[in-house]
Specification:
The structure is a single chain. The protein has helices spanning 12-23, 75-88, 111-116, 185-190, 193-200, 212-225, 252-256, 259-263, 272-280, 282-300, 302-305, 313-318, 329-335, 377-382, 388-395, 427-442, 451-469, 482-492, 503-508, and strands at residues 4-8, 27-31, 95-96, 99-107, 132-139, 145-150, 152-155, 181-184, 205-208, 231-235, 241-242, 323-324, 338-342, 348-350, 354-357, 363-365, 368-371, 416-418. By secondary structure, it is α/β, with parallel strands linked by helices. The chain has a five-stranded parallel sheet with strand order 3-2-1-7-18, with helices on one face. Strand 15 and strand 16 (363-365) form a beta hairpin. The longest helix is centred in the middle third of the chain and has 19 residues, at 282-300.
Length: 520
């Protein structure tokens, strides 16, 4: 009997989910709110580039074209690569474009019964004869709605779109009292390049936040206006932004993306010997961080600009906060076309002429403000569900990372997987591995453990994330343990997790997407 798999989102994770669903003989139905595939790469800034080397951002069975010579391609090259993948595997015919999902609702066992189950779905199976998901879809052009019943749902909605993180201000101190424009970086990226250029041209622009979006927008404003209309950047934490991927001539992957580097880290579910080894090798991890930090400080002159972070580079990579510093950024700072302003507190407010920092009396006059303050990915995920119980389940506790087994399955939500929420150094790479894992689960290659065991496993990962990501644990970042994580997926789906030839290669050579290319 035909099994329908509803896939929400046609970004990278959604396209991978569609392709692997087809490979197992199931029928995918992909819902995409935009008019084309590509996810976050559809609407970008003009200066946006890939944040990882392209050898790590690569489909295992679809190499980059030889015409792309750059190690970090620009946004148009990335979008063309992703859309070429969709065309190559004829995925577009399974995608319902301009179709925004407004809610998903489970039909089957009563919610009280669901919470009493000891096994996922009641019997540990991915499909149930009486269990269906109803996906309510709205056509963004006609505004008509339609309900699609499916046997399984894969949420591939990402976490960096749609629901912006807007700071909350006291009454009378928010954007409403400011005489200029206040927008989110999401709104800026939605503009075409010409409109965006006109928006910042000849205006004093203030950027709130020093994330990758904030850095890119600041560079675009500085390039357009120079010192005549300088761009001010407000931020609260200095960051380790990489000038390149070769600290002191050593490829970064040899320091952080091989098995040896993961021996330096305490891992979820590790035994006594691995725990002891990680403790003994802690000084080596400190040395690796110092190698990268000294390279960044030297190349970007961080001491000169007072931009040296207080935390280690390892914390940055464990939080998936690594960015590539736009070329010439600090040249603009030195010339005065970018003015850096670190907030001693995270509090600021608006007044008619601009921004007030709480511990200062002077007004920071500006013509417009762009909030590069990120997104609420967990809220976006929560809003997919109609059921209040499932909303609470998927969101989890605000003091813990999202409770997903293998970063994919919520133990108490049946017939559903989440792909692409948890972050890594290469989200494409881990999304492909997760899609393979989910499809083998659907195909019966392995069974999930009990709900309690899955919840305990998720708690171990939460403990790891809090230990190394600190306050950024909600990002669910696995970058520093990408191989350890993939080992678990490989063991579940019964393929050899060791992909190198020889002991030394296995220990020291970096792992990349092509190492996991399916053999059949």
């Amino acid at each position: 009997m035909e099994k329908k798999v509803g896939i929400i989102g046609a970004g990278i994770s959604g396209l991978l989910a569609c392709k692997y669903t087809l490979s197992k003989g199931y029928t995918p139905v992909v819902f995409e709110s935009q008019g084309s595939a590509g996810g976050v790469w559809i609407n970008t800034f003009q200066t946006t580039k890939l944040q990882t080397p392209k050898s790590y951002f690569q489909f295992s069975d679809f190499p980059w074209p030889s015409s792309v010579k750059e190690d970090t391609p620009d946004h148009s090259q990335v979008l063309d690569y992703v859309q070429s993948y969709a065309r190559h595997f004829n995925l577009d015919r399974h995608i319902k474009f301009n179709s925004r999902v407004v809610g998903i609702e489970f039909e089957g066992a009563a919610e009280e019964e669901l919470q009493a189950w000891e096994l996922w779905g009641g019997n540990g199976e991915p499909f149930a004869p009486e269990g269906k998901w109803r996906i309510t879809m709205e056509n963004t052009q006609t505004l008509s709605t339609k309900v699609h019943p499916v046997d399984f749902v894969i949420l591939c909605i990402g976490r960096f779109s749609d629901v912006p993180n807007i700071p909350v201000f006291p009454p009378g101190k928010g954007p409403e009292v400011f005489q200029g424009n206040v927008i989110h970086s999401m709104d800026y990226s939605a503009m075409d390049f010409q409109t965006a250029a006109q928006f910042i041209k000849g205006k004093r622009t203030t950027i709130v936040g020093n994330s990758k979006s904030g850095l890119d927008i600041a560079m675009e404003a500085a390039t357009a206006n120079g010192v005549e209309y300088p761009c001010r950047m407000l931020y609260k934490t200095n960051r380790w932004s990489l000038p390149d991927f070769q600290p002191w001539g050593i490829p970064l992957a040899y320091l952080y993306f091989n098995r040896f580097s993961e021996l330096l880290v305490h891992k979820p579910g590790e035994g006594f010997l691995l725990s002891l080894l990680a403790s003994i090798l802690t000084p080596v991890r400190w040395v690796f961080s110092r190698i990268v930090e000294s390279h960044i400080k030297r190349k970007l002159s961080l001491d000169k600009f007072g931009m040296v972070p207080e935390h280690s580079f390892f914390k940055e990579i464990s939080s998936c906060l690594i960015t590539i510093m736009p070329e010439g950024f600090y040249d603009c700072v030195e010339k005065g076309s970018i003015i850096l302003k670190k907030l001693s507190t995270s509090e600021f407010s608006f007044c008619k002429e601009g921004i007030m920092v709480d511990d200062e009396s002077a007004v920071l006059e500006t013509d417009q403000v762009i909030l590069a303050t990120g997104f609420k990915g967990d809220e976006k995920l929560k809003d997919m569900f109609v059921s209040p119980i499932f909303k609470d389940c998927i969101f989890g506790s605000s003091t813990a990372s999202l409770p997903l087994y293998r970063q994919c399955i919520h133990p108490r939500i049946p017939q559903l997987a989440v792909i692409g929420f948890s972050e890594s150094f290469s989200n494409l790479f881990t999304s492909e591995m997760r899609c393979r894992w989910v499809m083998e689960l659907l195909d019966g290659t392995f069974k999930l453990p009990s709900i309690k065991k899955m919840e305990k496993d998720a708690e171990k990962w939460d403990k790891y994330m809090k230990r190394y990501s600190k306050e950024n644990y909600r990002r669910s970042c696995i970058a520093a343990l990408q191989i350890w994580y993939c080992d678990q997926l490989c063991k579940d789906i019964e393929i050899n997790p060791k992909r190198k030839q020889g002991f030394l290669a296995e220990l020291f050579q970096p792992y990349a997407p092509l190492d996991y290319t399916p053999t059949s």
